[in-house]
Design brief:
Layout lengths: L10 E10 L2 E11 L4 E5 L6 H8 L7 E6 L2 E2 L5 H8 L2 E4 L11 H12 L3 H14 L15 H13 L5 E5 L7 H16 L3 E5 L3 H6 L4 E5 L2 E5 L6
Parallel strand pairs: 3-8, 3-9, 6-7, 7-8
Antiparallel strand pairs: 1-2, 1-4, 4-5, 9-10
């Protein structure tokens, strides 16, 4: 992982600025993330972590500069191309965004049903994934009855059911205790081992020191990549 331009990178940012209502939250971002990498995004509250993520998972376009995801310049990508790219991306939101009155099974199955997959294959995939996140005994429970840690694991399962190439997570451990946080992190580590590129925004310094991966640190509108083992 480098700070230089890399046309083979899964994400490449060249002099990128991003913000809202004409005001840039981040500017002159120049970073490159390798396929299969694991990276934290750190910074104080309000530093732009969520804004940067929303651009990377293709909800926002850069205000300036070039952002390439999967080698595609998103400023020149049409709606259909962006939709295809989003199918290769999983997102775990800070507020879960589960359908509370639906079951665990139906929440996780939803992305596959949208794709038109047959129910037999959906069931096989969902059950397999629920065993992996240790929620197979809660398969038909309504999400409204789950704890915060259980909801987060459902959100992770839903985000990875399509087997994405990139998984983004916005403060995934922010509402759970340290035991659950470590369990969630182990899930991310295992996903990364099978080739998924992982990008996690967090303010949890204990997390980033325990799991020693490179960090993109946001400060005063800038973004700098710090390698593993290097302190900010």
């Amino acid at each position: 992982m480098t700070e230089t331009t890399n046309t083979q990178a899964i994400i490449d940012m060249q002099n990128v600025a991003v913000g809202y209502d004409g005001t840039d939250v981040l500017s002159n971002v120049q970073l490159s993330l390798d396929n299969g990498s694991f990276t934290f995004i750190t910074g104080r509250s309000g530093s732009g972590k969520t804004t940067l993520l929303s651009m990377l998972y293709l909800v926002k376009r850069p205000s300036k500069g070039i952002l390439k995801v999967f080698g595609q310049n998103i400023n020149f990508s049409n709606r259909d191309t962006l939709a295809e790219m989003r199918q290769r991306i999983g997102v775990v939101f800070q507020d879960f965004r589960l359908l509370e009155n639906m079951s665990v099974y139906d929440n996780i199955a939803l992305p596959l049903r949208v794709r038109g997959m047959n129910e037999k294959e959906i069931y096989r995939r969902v059950v397999e994934l629920l065993q992996w996140v240790e929620l197979h005994k809660s398969i038909y429970k309504k999400c409204s009855t789950l704890s915060g840690g259980e909801k987060q694991r459902v959100a992770i399962a839903r985000a990875v059911i399509n087997r994405p190439d990139i998984l983004f997570a916005d403060e995934p451990t922010g509402s759970v205790d340290s035991e659950i946080a470590n369990k969630l992190m182990r899930l991310f580590v295992e996903l990364n081992k099978v080739g998924t590129t992982i990008i996690i925004a967090t303010h949890n310094e204990q997390l980033t020191s325990t799991y020693n991966y490179p960090r993109i640190h946001l400060h005063d509108g800038s973004a700098k990549l710090y390698p593993a083992l290097q302190h900010i």
